């Protein structure tokens, strides 16, 4: 009985970054516990569409296969998520796969998330510790705070929050929720805090924090459950204070 | 536009929506509510507002300039968004979409409302109970006024919610949830005031 069971896929494909997208249907044999990635691997082994025609294998991105790298994100049945944790048994069929169109499509389901990494550079999402001599150990972080910060550090730059955000699109420069939350993470670190103002001023630039329109789709969509909207509201408070400091404060850095 | 002004523009937009435009909205609704006490009371209240000293300066600084800024920048914000309530039908996403839709409806309504009352007053018409009675005797205009006033009130109440987030007053999910209830209360209360006033002219 199991050998007759199949899984149906409707996949949005695109051959070139600038060519027109089209959909192709596939039907593959069912195996217990399969996820979207193992189904795509099956398609790669035998790239034949539902009409029995030989076609090119579907291209997609993947890496860790355990939902920590963020590479395999795609839109599955209308919702952006990681394909490695999308279990076929829990999905309505036909399973519709689309690329996250917020990003430039490279090919088929593969997108270019470079803009997110550029944003992390823009907001200085790191802790500068290099010196010309040994700077010694930094200040210690309370354990409770470390546990709290760990939640924010789970961000894997997967792009799901940008895909869900109505204000991240081709009309706007909004960097999106993920890099903003990283500012909060690095500003909370006892050593990172030393560059707090730099990061806040960076997100007060064009395409920054002010572009958030509070649709709160990001926090609903984040696969890691990161409190993105709390981060954004907290940064709103920090930037309010920072803007007063910038305007009424002294020239002290 | 100059570079890196977006933050200031956006915060100014948020501030002006509440102070003074939102405050004026409440005042306008409350003063008009005199209509429920009869034509006499309404005309007295309207004439008192008209006879305030420095009227044109007050109107320009408290209403026209802030409202124009809020409206024009608001159009830009509304059309920058790519609404996706179909894919993400969450409550806040609906509010996000409605905030933009009611903003545009309110703008259309206000353009008409200002033309029909304030501009006509400048051209010599007397803004009084009878004028509103005439306007609202047309069922189409009645519906237009109901939709316009409710849109404005929704836009203000939901705007208060996002004002509190945008300035970092409500940070935690709990405070944002309570703020949702409070702003729903404000929406209902002001709607009662607005609708009662409109029906007082009929």
UniProtKB/TrEMBL annotation, chain A:
- Does this entry carry the keyword Translocase? no
Q: Does the keyword Signal apply?
A: no
Annotated EC: 1.3.5.1
Pfam families noted in UniProt: Fer2_3 (PF13085), Fer4_8 (PF13183)
Source organism's superkingdom? Bacteria
UniProt cofactor(s):
[2Fe-2S] cluster; [4Fe-4S] cluster; [3Fe-4S] cluster
Q: Which organism is it from?
A: Peribacillus saganii
Which family is it part of? Belongs to the succinate dehydrogenase/fumarate reductase iron-sulfur protein family.
Q: Molecular function terms in GO for this entry?
A: 2 iron, 2 sulfur cluster binding; 3 iron, 4 sulfur cluster binding; 4 iron, 4 sulfur cluster binding; electron transfer activity; metal ion binding; succinate dehydrogenase (quinone) activity
* Residue ranges of domain 4Fe-4S ferredoxin-type in the record: 146-174
* Protein name (Swiss-Prot/TrEMBL): succinate dehydrogenase
Keywords, alphabetical: 2Fe-2S, 3Fe-4S, 4Fe-4S, Iron, Iron-sulfur, Metal-binding, Oxidoreductase, Tricarboxylic acid cycle
Q: Name one GO biological process term.
A: tricarboxylic acid cycle
Instruction: Provide the top EC class.
Output: oxidoreductase
Query: InterPro entries given for it?
Result: 2Fe-2S_ferredoxin-like_sf, 4Fe4S_Fe-S-bd, 4Fe4S_Fe_S_CS, Beta-grasp_dom_sf, Helical_ferredxn, SDH/FRD_Iron-Sulfur, Succ_DH/fum_Rdtase_Fe-S, Succ_DH/fum_Rdtase_N
Automatic annotation (TrEMBL), chain B:
Is DNA damage among this UniProt entry's keywords? no
Which residues are listed as membrane-spanning? 12-36, 56-79, 91-115, 135-157, 178-199
Question: What Pfam families does the annotation carry?
Answer: Sdh_cyt
Under the GO molecular function aspect, what terms does this record hold? metal ion binding
> What keywords would UniProt list here?
Heme, Iron, Membrane, Metal-binding, Transmembrane, Transmembrane helix
Q: Which SUPFAM superfamilies match?
A: Fumarate reductase respiratory complex transmembrane subunits
Protein residues bound to heme: 28, 70, 113, 155
The cellular location(s) given in this protein's UniProt record come to: Membrane
Record-linked InterPro entries: Cytochrome_b-558, SQR/QFR_C/D, Succ_DH_cyt_b558_Firmicute, SuccDH_FuR_B_TM-su
Q: Does the keyword Iron apply?
A: yes
Top-rank taxon: Bacteria
Any one GO CC term of the record? membrane
Protein name (Swiss-Prot/TrEMBL): Succinate dehydrogenase
Q: Which organism is it from?
A: Peribacillus saganii
Task: Tell me the classification of the organism that encodes this protein.
Answer: Bacteria, Bacillati, Bacillota, Bacilli, Bacillales
């Amino acid at each position: 009985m199991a050998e007759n069971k199949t899984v149906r896929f409707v996949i949005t494909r695109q051959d070139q970054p600038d060519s027109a997208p089209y959909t192709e249907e596939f039907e593959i044999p069912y195996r217990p516990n399969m996820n979207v990635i193992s189904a795509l691997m099956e398609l790669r082994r035998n790239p034949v569409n539902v009409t029995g025609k030989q076609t090119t294998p579907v291209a997609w991105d993947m890496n860790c296969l355990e939902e920590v790298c963020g590479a395999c994100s795609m839109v599955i049945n209308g919702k952006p998520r990681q394909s490695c944790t999308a279990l076929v048994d829990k999905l309505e069929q036909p399973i519709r796969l689309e690329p996250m169109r917020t990003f430039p499509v490279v090919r088929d389901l593969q997108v270019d998330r470079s803009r997110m990494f550029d944003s992390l550079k823009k907001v200085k999402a790191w802790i500068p510790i290099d010196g010309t001599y040994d700077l010694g150990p930094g200040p210690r972080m309370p354990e409770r705070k470390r546990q709290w910060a760990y939640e924010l550090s789970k961000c894997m730059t997967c792009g799901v929050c940008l895909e869900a955000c109505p204000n991240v699109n081709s009309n706007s420069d909004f960097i999106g929720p993920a890099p903003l939350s990283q500012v909060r993470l690095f500003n909370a670190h006892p050593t990172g805090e030393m560059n707090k103002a730099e990061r806040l001023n960076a997100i007060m630039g064009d395409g920054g924090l002010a572009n958030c329109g509070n649709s709160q789709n990001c926090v609903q969509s984040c696969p890691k459950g990161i409190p993105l909207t709390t981060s954004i509201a907290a940064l709103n408070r920090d930037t309010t204070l920072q803007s007063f400091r910038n305007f009424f404060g002294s020239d002290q850095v | 536009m100059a570079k890196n002004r977006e933050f200031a523009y956006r915060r100014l937009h948020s501030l002006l929506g509440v102070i003074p435009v939102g405050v004026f909205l409440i005042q306008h609704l409350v003063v008009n509510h005199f209509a429920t006490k009869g034509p006499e009371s309404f005309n007295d209240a309207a004439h008192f507002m008209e006879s305030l000293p420095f009227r044109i300066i007050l109107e320009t600084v408290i209403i026209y300039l802030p409202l124009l800024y809020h409206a024009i920048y608001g159009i830009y914000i509304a059309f920058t968004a790519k609404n996706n309530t179909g894919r993400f039908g969450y409550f806040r996403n609906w509010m996000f979409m409605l905030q933009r839709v009611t903003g545009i409806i309110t703008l259309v309504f206000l353009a008409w409302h200002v033309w029909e009352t304030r501009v006509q007053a400048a051209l010599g018409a007397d803004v009084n109970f009878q004028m509103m009675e005439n306007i609202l005797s047309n069922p189409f205009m009645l519906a237009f006024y109901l939709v316009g006033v409710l849109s404005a009130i929704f836009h203000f109440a939901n705007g208060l919610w996002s004002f509190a987030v945008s300035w970092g007053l409500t940070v935690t999910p709990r405070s944002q949830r309570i703020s949702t209830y409070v702003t729903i209360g404000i929406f209902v209360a002001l709607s009662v005031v607005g609708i009662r006033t409109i029906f007082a002219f009929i």
